[in-house]
Amino acid sequence: MATKKTEKATSTKTKAPAKAAATPKAAKAPKGEKKAQGPRHPKARVVAKHGDKAALAKALAPSLVRGEEKADEVEARLKTASNSQLLRLQKAVTTLTSKWGSRDKLIAAIGAAQKKSKDRDFIAKLETYSLPQLIDLGLAADRSARA
Predict the structure, then answer these.
(1) Burial (0-12, 13-18, 19+ Cβ within 10 Å), 134
(2) pTM higher than 0.85
(3) Which pLDDT tens digit goes with each residue over 16-75?
(4) Cα 12 off chain centre by
């Protein structure tokens, strides 16, 4: 069976222009020097920074108390929490103290941002929220205030 030969069509496409010279990148560290890194596993991070899990739980408990709870009850619950959860809560507590100072000031800031600072039911409901939830609301209020 015979095959049909076709002529190759000449391409009318033009080549893309050459790329402009790339901007120089930041100088890399010499290969012999390595950046000091902390431990990657959550348990190792807890031990490296706080000694043990109980010490971290004791440090976090006063900041996480809400409503009628006592710090001892919260501390007992935190001792059974996972290391990664404790580290996440520690990050939330440091954010709280650096931006707002205390839980009450954060709740007042959320109420003022949403123009509901005199609404007692709204403020009472905010007091039942967990600290990470309040921080999310506070950060959202900050973003909306800037926009």
Answers:
(1) buried
(2) no
(3) 666 666 666 666 666 767 777 778 788 787 887 878 889 989 999 998 888 788 999 999
(4) 53
DSSP 79-127: HTS-HHHHHHHHHHHHHHHHHTSSHHHHHHHHHHHTT-TT-HHHHHHHH
Burial of 64 (0-12, 13-18, 19+ CB in 10 A): buried
Give the pLDDT confidence of 83-141 residue by residue, as tens digits: 899 989 999 999 999 999 999 999 999 999 999 989 999 999 999 999 999 999 999 99
Q: Counting runs of H as helices and runs of E as strands, what totals does the chain give?
A: 7, 0
CA atoms of 134 and 65, how far apart (whole Å): 13
Distance CA 126, CA 12 (A): 67
Residues 102, 118, 120, 78: what is their CA dihedral angle, to the nearest 10 degrees?
A: -10
